[in-house]
């Protein structure tokens, strides 16, 4: 990226006589990137992690001269992971001159964003959501996604279930809009390899999950999947299941592995043997390099999460797209630039993982290598890749 001195942001709005219309003039010398960050809603536990790393990535790029010599400025809004608020948040970011948007918010919100992205002709990258529908047709012309999709999660789970002989699965999930959407997508794919015995849900702020967990255990599944946005609910679920079904194999989505502060809330040994869908590998040198970059800002003890790595890669993918586009003031060209980004080595996943977009594929990972099954040890800390099964890297 070429180094140059950037001019300050110039944003002008021409208001009509009625005050109802506005036209934003984008500065040719400053690149504005919009960030929709849920900092106060149900997705804040993971959105703020991604949002902090987006800020660090932008700062690092600016220290290197920005993108093609143009300084990057970040404008931030908060939709609180509320799908009803997301369209207005996208329009606010457009009005502030954003060339593209990063959606660090819940799955329900990013799905609601699809239509307004198309209407506004502004590309958006979702660095942490798992919903296949965001990056998939129809209406995905301006929608791009960084993590492996839920269908790929199911493919990995099914590989593990088939190897270990698991034929039945119980699901315990929180009742958030994000998890509701995830379960609706994940369940049909999982049922290709295992019978789902029941799906039990409870409010995100539930104080007791004994009844729901007992109903799941009562169906005598071979394995149990906890589906949650993380935090208090997920730890409570595993504390409860560890007591009433200690011999049943438990799985989790990615959230618990990406929220290390929550591990201290688990009862002694409650997470032992639980396997979660991770996205970080100690064998990826780029993961180690990113860890050092973030520790330089957040402190020497910072524990890297997949949210960090995927948010960082989202910024790098967007930076490359703007370089390809050659004109950040033309959002359609930026979208077309994203479709040409290819083979970017990833900061998450296994060492061989690369990220690409194309006109027909808006999902970044080039293989299942972005996923790593990780189990917890008796100290309630991740102990490393699960010995029983790992997704193939091809």
From TrEMBL:
Signal peptide coordinates: 1-23
Alphabetical list of InterPro entries matching this protein: BCAA_transport (IPR051010), Leu-bd (IPR028081), Peripla_BP_I (IPR028082)
Signal in keyword set: yes
Top-rank taxon, per record: Bacteria
Keywords, alphabetical: Signal
Coiled-coil region(s): none
Domain Leucine-binding protein residue range list: 30-350
Record SUPFAM superfamilies: Periplasmic binding protein-like I (SSF53822)
PANTHER family for this protein: LEUCINE-SPECIFIC-BINDING PROTEIN, PERIPLASMIC BINDING PROTEIN OF ABC TRANSPORTER FOR NATURAL AMINO ACIDS
Family from the record: Belongs to the leucine-binding protein family.
Protein name as it appears in the record: Branched-chain amino acid transport system substrate-binding protein
Organism: Rhodococcus tukisamuensis
Upper classification of the organism: Bacteria, Bacillati, Actinomycetota, Actinomycetes, Mycobacteriales
């Amino acid at each position: 990226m070429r180094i140059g001195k950037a001019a300050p942001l110039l944003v002008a709005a021409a208001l009509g006589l009625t005050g109802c219309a506005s036209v934003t003039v984008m500065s040719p010398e400053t690149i504005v990137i919009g960030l929709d960050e849920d900092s106060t809603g149900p997705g804040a536990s993971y959105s703020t992690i991604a949002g902090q790393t987006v800020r660090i990535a932008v700062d690092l790029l600016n220290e290197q001269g920005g993108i093609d010599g143009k300084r990057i400025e970040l404008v931030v809004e908060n939709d609180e992971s509320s799908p009803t608020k997301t369209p207005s948040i996208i329009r606010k970011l457009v009005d502030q001159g954003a060339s593209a948007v990063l959606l660090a918010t819940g799955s329900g919100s990013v799905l609601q964003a699809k239509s307004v992205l198309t209407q506004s002709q502004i590309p958006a990258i979702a660095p942490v959501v798992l919903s296949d529908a965001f990056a998939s047709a129809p209406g995905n012309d301006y929608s791009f996604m960084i993590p492996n999709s839920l269908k790929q999660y199911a493919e990995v789970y099914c590989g593990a279930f088939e190897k270990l002989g698991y034929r039945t699965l119980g699901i315990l999930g929180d009742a958030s809009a994000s998890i509701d959407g995830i379960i609706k997508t994940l369940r049909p794919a999982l049922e290709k390899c295992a019978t789902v015995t029941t799906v039990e849900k409870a409010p995100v702020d539930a104080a007791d999950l004994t009844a729901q967990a007992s109903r799941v255990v009562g169906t005598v599944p071979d394995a149990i999947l906890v589906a949650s946005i993380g935090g208090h609910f997920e730890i409570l679920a595993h504390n409860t299941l560890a007591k009433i079904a200690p011999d049943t194999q438990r799985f989790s989505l990615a959230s618990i592995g990406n929220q290390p502060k929550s591990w201290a809330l688990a009862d002694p040994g409650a997470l032992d043997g639980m396997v979660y869908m991770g996205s970080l590998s100690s064998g990826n040198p780029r993961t180690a390099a990113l860890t050092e970059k973030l520790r330089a800002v957040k402190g020497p003890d910072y524990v890297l999460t997949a949210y960090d790595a995927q948010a960082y890669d989202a910024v790098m993918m967007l930076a490359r797209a703007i370089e390809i586009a050659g004109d950040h003031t033309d959002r359609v060209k930026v979208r077309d630039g994203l479709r040409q980004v290819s083979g970017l080595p990833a900061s998450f996943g296994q060492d061989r993982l690369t990220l690409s977009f194309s006109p027909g594929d808006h999902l970044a990972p080039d293989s299942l290598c972005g996923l790593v099954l990780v189990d917890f040890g008796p100290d309630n800390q991740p102990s490393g890749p699960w010995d029983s099964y790992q997704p193939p890297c091809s």
